[in-house]
Structure formats: C-alpha cells, structure tokens
Amino acid sequence: NAGVTQTPKFQVLKTGQSMTLQCAQDMNHNSMYWYRQDPGMGLRLIYYSASEGTTDKGEVPNGYNVSRLNKREFSLRLESAAPSQTSVYFCASGTGANQPQHFGDGTRLSIL
Amino acid sequence: QKEVEQDPGPLSVPEGAIVSLNCTYSNSAFQYFMWYRQYSRKGPELLMYTYSSGNKEDGRFTAQVDKSSKYISLFIRDSQPSDSATYLCAMSAVAGGSYIPTFGRGTSLIVHP
C-alpha cells in the first residue's frame, strides 16, 4: 500500500530556478492538497483540488502553480524559486469535504 | 489571533504518564475534529476523527470535544517513548462542504524512559 507518494524527497535549487514537485495517490481519492510546513508556522495550504479538473488557491498560493493531471496525480510547480520558498512540502489526499487527509512523507526543498 | 491555538511545547513526560494535549478554537461552525501524529521527517498520520461533541476512544487514545468551551483534547494513557512526536489538531466546518481544514501548529511531545 503506497498511499501518497511524493518525489523527489530532497532537492536543492538556486534562486530563479524552476522545478515541479510530483504527487500521486493510489487510494482513489477525489481531493488532493499541497501544504508547506515551516518551523513555528504549522501546515499552510498552498493549493487544493476538490476533484479532478478543479483547482483552488489556499492560504499561501503566491509563487506556485498546480496541475491536477488526472485523479491520481497533483503536481506543484515553482516557476522562479526564491529563498523564502525553502520549506518542507507535503501532498495530501482525501475522500472529500470534511474528511481526514492522508499525507505523503514530504519533499525537503532548499533554495540558495 | 489564529482560528486554532495549540501550545507548541515541548511537553516532556515520563514513560507511563497520562498525557493531555489540547487545542482551542474560535470558529463556532467547526464540527469535524481530527488529531494527527507526526514523527520527525515524516508526514502527519491520522490518529482520531470525531464529529461534533463528545468522547471517542481508540486503545490508549481518547479524543474529547467540548463545543461549548471551543476546546478539544487528546489523552494518551500509559505513554510510551514511541509516542514521542508532534501532535497536530485540525478541524473543519460543515457549511459549504469545506475542503479546507484548519490546523493547529502542533505540540511536541517527548516521552522519556
């Protein structure tokens, strides 16, 4: 049972570089989410997709874009990385509104 | 003031102690309440999920919701060193079928042998 799989697990970028974080779930969940977690800040929602074909902004969307490629996959793109985007990024999935979420183990991203 | 407040700790207890972890919230519309456990360098994993008020028990864990006081608790009985982790509360509202839960910032728990 893979659950929610995130790739890569670690990445170091230079300021201005772009990259895409990948997320896939094998639980047939409708909803998918991207969070960032910073010390003392807790989990902050970047974007979410309530169902295949829809995406919506969360609390901190600036500097990011997302694509819900199909029901399984939800990617997060940084077009021009900035040091303020150094963080641990978590992808999560869930069956729908007000239901618990299942999280991946995160991507640790450092931007120099 | 954040919608959900959670003391970051750390909370350090001896093995075998009863642990009480708490969150307070301000949004009276919250109806769904969750507790997640997060080990170092891992993603959060669901521990408890409750709807509305009352208690729910699962093994050594008990979740309690007091909507009148806007206060939720997670109790851990007979705590073990393997319980050392960060515990996150989360909650969401019924109205509008919210897809966005509100998370607390997490409480770090250390159970020492």
Layout of helices and strands:
The complex is a heterodimer of chains A (112) and B (113).
Chain A lengths: L3 E4 L2 E4 L5 E7 L5 E8 L3 E8 L6 E2 L6 E5 L5 E5 L8 E8 L6 E3 L3 E5 L1
Parallel strand pairs in A: 2-11
Antiparallel strand pairs in A: 1-3, 3-8, 4-5, 4-9, 5-6, 7-8, 9-10, 9-11
Chain B lengths: L3 E2 L5 E4 L4 E7 L4 E9 L6 E7 L2 E5 L2 E6 L4 E6 L8 E9 L8 E2 L3 E6 L1
Parallel strand pairs in B: 2-11
Antiparallel strand pairs in B: 1-3, 3-8, 4-5, 4-9, 6-7, 7-8, 9-10, 9-11
Descriptive notes:
The complex is a heterodimer of chains A (112) and B (113). With 112 residues, chain A is mainly β. Chain A has strands at residues 4-7, 10-13, 19-25, 31-38, 42-49, 56-57, 64-68, 74-78, 87-94, 101-103, 107-111. Chain A contains no helices and eleven strands. In chain A, the strands form two sheets. In chain A, strands 2, 4, 5, 6, 9, 10 and 11 form a seven-stranded mixed β-sheet that branches. Chain A has a four-stranded antiparallel β-sheet with strand order 1-3-8-7, with no helix packed on it. Chain A is globular, with a radius of gyration of 13 Å. The mean pLDDT of chain A is 95. Chain B contains no helices and eleven strands. By secondary structure, chain B is an all-beta fold. The chains are: A mainly beta (112), B mainly beta (113). Chains A and B meet through strand 5, strand 9 and strand 10 of A and strand 4, strand 5 and strand 9 of B.
Short précis:
Chain A has 112 residues and is an all-beta fold. Chain A has no helices and 11 strands. Chain B is 0% helix and 56% strand.
